[in-house]
Amino acid sequence: MRTGLDDGPYLPGRGPRKKKSDWRLQFPVGSRVGIRGTNPWAGKAGIVECHETFLGVSSIRVGFDNGGAAGVLKRTDLIVLKGGQRMTRKQDYPADLIRQCEMLGLPAPQPEHRFCARRWRFDLAWRDAMLAVEVEGGLWIRGRHNRPMGYMRDMEKYNTAANMGWRVMRFTPRQVKNWDAIHVIAQALGVEVEIG
């Protein structure tokens, strides 16, 4: 039995077979792309130079705008940029918290504070108050903090910090943007602030 659509055989209960879209059409040679993700080139933009397949892995060679060596990337690390669109860097939420502290007259935290010999770092720390802040991103996209190994490493890090006397507060980017995080931090520091 045929459906009348020329896209594959009819499968009972499923309808016609769907064609897979070719990723080479999504990122054609000469198209402008931005690099996202956690790779070293994240935030840069460039032009697709060619498509490559090595040991069964498909990748895309991108020549960067500022010159230098081209990068070979997975297609999941790329987004298509339209016209004069620029690639925007990931927002720095700990830096936003530092600016909020300045605006409210709170003590300045130390960014990227290393608190033990394991080279673990807090996003922000108030050493005198033994207060640390972590901004946990990637909640809705199964980011590093939500995957099993990342979650277990975070547990080890926070338990070690607690044994050393640190109070660790964890916030989402949304809590930083809507000023909820800085309100809780001010309470922990024992400072009365009027927000909004």
Commentary on this structure:
- This protein has helices at 23-26, 93-104, 148-163, 173-177, 180-189, and strands at 10-11, 15-16, 32-35, 45-54, 57-64, 71-73, 78-80, 110-114, 121-126, 131-135, 167-171.
- The chain is α+β, with helices and mostly antiparallel strands and 196 residues long.
- It folds into 2 domains: 10-80, SH3 type barrels (Roll); 93-189, Endonuclease, Chain A (3-Layer(aba) Sandwich), CATH 3.40.960.10.
- The strands form 3 sheets. It has a 5-stranded antiparallel β-sheet, with no helix packed on it. Strands 8-9-10-11 form a 4-stranded mixed β-sheet, sandwiched between helices. A two-stranded antiparallel ribbon has the order 1-2.
Radius of gyration over all CA atoms, rounded: 24 Å
Instruction: Quote the beta fraction.
Output: 25-35%
The CATH class of the largest domain, by name, is Alpha Beta
As a percent range, the share of helical residues equals 10-25%
The largest β sheet comes out as: 5 strands, antiparallel
Shape: elongated
Question: What is the succession of H and E elements?
Answer: EEHEEEEEHEEEHEHH
Number of strands: 11
CATH superfamily of the largest domain: VSR Endonuclease
How many DSSP helices? 5
Q: What is the domain tally?
A: 2
